[in-house]
């Protein structure tokens, strides 16, 4: 571009800077190229400067006299050596400061964590001015009462305090918070239910029923014992290595799958069961109990619906007859079967929820919820909807 702009009236030479140079704006090391341009005339100079500015090049004037060039070279070299000495001194000072801090850093972090935990606990306590003590109120399950008392006694002994911690039960009219005891098997199901809402104190916990209904409804919709075996292998892998995986830091997807490993296990088992009912192994039927119970009188009736078929042996003892595969009635029959099973299971689960709401209202002696608000209104509305459908 310089050659065409000046019509060849210039001399250009370039060379690599050698080492990467740090860009002051971005802080990254970039490759630089040094170039020199010899030209004649002020117009050519203006054009060359504009072209260099458009490409973001840094331009430095070079005097024509050799004496001034050598003087500039000495000044730049002196400034460069001074900057290198300053940078080396700053680097050494920084390293010494980091070494002195590094030996004490873990103690500072531990002290900050302890102070943070102490003040976080103090924020949950109230100061009694008359008795000059800290008072804390909270809820705990009945079965954990003895455990809390033991922990408080150990804390008093370890702190060498002259005044012990007093644990006292209080009577209150406030409703206690909801708490459900879970283990590693039921915890994932409880979290799924809690994502939709947490019931009041002493209400029936629907997570108990969801342990079976949730994975079984999944299997009704995605019943295939080939895919179920794949899910089962994945769930067994997570379960057998749960001790090792629980002590590691996992990514978000693996942590989600590991937390729901027992949910995946039940979904896999029910998928295998429903897949055997549908007789589907990766969408391919299997003659598990021998050949089909029906056969054609003639070879021309292979695509018939029911006409022309004769029963030659006992019906399939379990699952769908494989003769439905490939026939004209395959999609209407199998889709109808799966849809009706899904509807029956879904309606049964919703009726179970309405029935549980009745027992909750009866336990809390809330006659309005039973008569008007919850039970009969939902039952009548849902029943009318089923009749209409």
TrEMBL record:
GO CC annotation: proton-transporting V-type ATPase, V0 domain; vacuolar proton-transporting V-type ATPase complex
One GO BP annotation of this record: vacuolar acidification
GO molecular function annotations of the record: ATPase binding; proton-transporting ATPase activity, rotational mechanism
Keywords: Hydrogen ion transport, Ion transport, Membrane, Transmembrane, Transmembrane helix, Transport
Matching InterPro entries: V-ATPase_116kDa_su (IPR002490)
Location relative to the cell: Membrane
Positions of transmembrane segments: 216-240, 261-278, 341-361
Membrane topology: Multi-pass membrane protein
Function: Essential component of the vacuolar proton pump (V-ATPase), a multimeric enzyme that catalyzes the translocation of protons across the membranes. Required for assembly and activity of the V-ATPase.
Family: Belongs to the V-ATPase 116 kDa subunit family.
Record protein name field: V-type proton ATPase subunit a
Lineage start: Eukaryota, Viridiplantae, Streptophyta, Embryophyta, Tracheophyta
């Amino acid at each position: 571009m310089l050659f065409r702009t000046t019509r060849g009236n210039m001399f250009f030479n370039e060379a690599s800077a050698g080492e990467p140079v740090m860009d002051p704006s971005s802080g990254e090391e970039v490759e630089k190229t040094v170039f020199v341009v010899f030209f004649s005339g002020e117009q050519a100079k203006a054009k060359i400067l504009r072209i260099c500015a458009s490409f973001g090049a840094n331009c430095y004037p070079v005097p024509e006299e050799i004496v001034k060039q050598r003087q500039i070279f000495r000044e730049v070299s002196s400034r460069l050596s001074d900057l290198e000495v300053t940078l080396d001194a700053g680097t050494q000072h920084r390293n010494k400061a980091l070494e002195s801090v590094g030996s004490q850093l873990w103690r500072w972090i531990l002290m900050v964590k302890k102070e943070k935990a102490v003040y976080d606990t103090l924020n949950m306590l109230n100061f009694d001015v008359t008795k000059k003590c800290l008072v804390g109120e909270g809820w705990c399950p009945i079965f954990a009462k003895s455990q809390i008392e033991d922990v408080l006694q150990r804390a008093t002994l370890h702190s060498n305090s002259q005044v012990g911690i007093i644990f006292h039960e209080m009577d209150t009219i406030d409703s206690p918070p909801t708490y459900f005891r879970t283990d590693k098997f039921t915890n994932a199901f409880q979290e799924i239910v809690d994502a939709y809402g947490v019931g009041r104190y002493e209400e029936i916990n629907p997570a108990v029923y969801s342990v079976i209904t949730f994975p079984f409804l999944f299997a009704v919709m995605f019943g295939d014992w080939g895919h179920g075996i794949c899910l089962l292998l994945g769930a067994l892998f997570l379960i057998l290595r749960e001790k090792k995986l629980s002590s590691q830091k996992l990514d978000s997807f693996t942590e989600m799958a590991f937390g729901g490993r027992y949910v995946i296990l039940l979904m896999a088992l029910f998928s295998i069961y429903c897949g055997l009912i549908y007789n589907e192994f990766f969408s391919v039927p299997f003659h598990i109990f021998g050949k089909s119970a029906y056969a054609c009188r003639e070879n021309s009736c292979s695509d018939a619906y029911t006409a022309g078929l004769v029963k030659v042996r006992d019906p399939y003892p379990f699952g769908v007859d494989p003769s439905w595969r490939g026939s004209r009635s395959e999609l209407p029959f199998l889709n109808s079967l799966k849809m009706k099973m899904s509807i029956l299971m879904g309606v049964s689960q919703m009726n179970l929820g309405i029935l549980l709401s009745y027992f909750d209202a009866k336990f809390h002696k809330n006659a309005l919820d039973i008569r008007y608000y919850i039970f009969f209104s939902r039952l009548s509305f849902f029943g009318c909807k089923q009749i209409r459908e």
